[in-house]
């Protein structure tokens, strides 16, 4: 085993978007980071510094809907870094653009598989590892999205999974108390990513049926919050945190 940094983290969905920004910020902050995603090439790009792999980055191709692959991810991480301090449960898909009447069962199932079952599998594996580290514990950060609070139109599958993430996070926080494991639901609104760029390119659909351009913010600002959470002592719990682009239609959405 190589010399371990003071703290280590796993970031799922680290090959692009918010996950990429978070993984890079944690590496820059001195964390040992395992970058998880379906494809290794984007993960290598995330972890590169001046074209060379970051010395404290570990790349593990992982399909988070596959329990065996998730267990392998945790095993590889612990083998490299010795322990797990932070899980950033970030991987997710937006799912179909459909209301409940038009939603195909196959699209519903595929969205739940990634956004909910995948998050549960990763959180469960992380919980078991953190519990074994007693009394040290650890911190689990779940990407909830502001859709965990207020939905967009025609996003029933995505919105349902994100509401479920709220229950998952609260349950982890409660069950983790004896083991010094804390959980945070991080609800993000309009961080600039390829997904958001596609969503708002022609104006985002509003509740009244109109479309409008919406403000966005740099994903690095979200990453800054995650680094602050990761650095907090486990005596501090942050059950829920909302960060949005200023002026986006969230407060007062309707």
From TrEMBL:
Question: What family is this protein classified in?
Answer: Belongs to the short-chain dehydrogenases/reductases (SDR) family.
**Superkingdom of the source?**
Bacteria
Question: What UniProt keywords are attached to this protein's entry?
Answer: Oxidoreductase
Any Pfam family matching the protein:
adh_short
What transmembrane ranges does the database entry give?
A: none
Q: What is this protein called?
A: NAD(P)-dependent dehydrogenase (Short-subunit alcohol dehydrogenase family)
């Amino acid at each position: 085993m190589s010399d371990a940094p003071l703290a280590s983290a796993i970031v799922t969905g680290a090959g692009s978007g918010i996950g990429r920004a978070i993984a890079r910020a944690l590496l820059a902050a001195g964390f040992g980071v395992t970058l998880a995603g379906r494809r290794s090439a984007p993960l290598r790009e995330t972890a590169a510094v001046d074209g060379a792999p970051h010395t404290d980055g570990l790349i593990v191709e992982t399909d988070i809907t596959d329990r065996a692959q998730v267990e392998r991810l945790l095993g590889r991480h612990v083998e490299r870094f010795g322990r797990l301090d932070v899980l950033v449960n970030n991987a997710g898909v937006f799912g179909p653009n459909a209301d409940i009447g038009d939603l195909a069962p196959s699209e519903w199932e595929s969205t739940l598989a990634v956004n909910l079952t995948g998050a549960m599998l990763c959180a469960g594996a992380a919980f078991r590892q953190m519990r074994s580290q007693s009394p040290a514990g650890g911190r689990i950060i779940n990407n909830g999205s502001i859709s965990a609070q207020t939905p967009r139109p025609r996003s029933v599958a995505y919105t349902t999974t994100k509401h479920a993430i709220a229950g998952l996070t609260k349950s982890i926080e409660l069950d983790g108390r004896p083991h010094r494991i804390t959980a945070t639901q991080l609800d993000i609104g309009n961080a600039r990513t390829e997904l958001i760029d596609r969503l708002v390119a022609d104006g985002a659909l509003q509740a009244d049926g109109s479309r409008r351009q919406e403000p966005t913010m740099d994903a690095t600002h979200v990453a800054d919050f995650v680094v602050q959470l990761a650095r907090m002592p486990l005596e501090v719990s942050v059950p829920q945190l909302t960060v949005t682009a200023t002026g986006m239609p969230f407060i007062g959405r309707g």
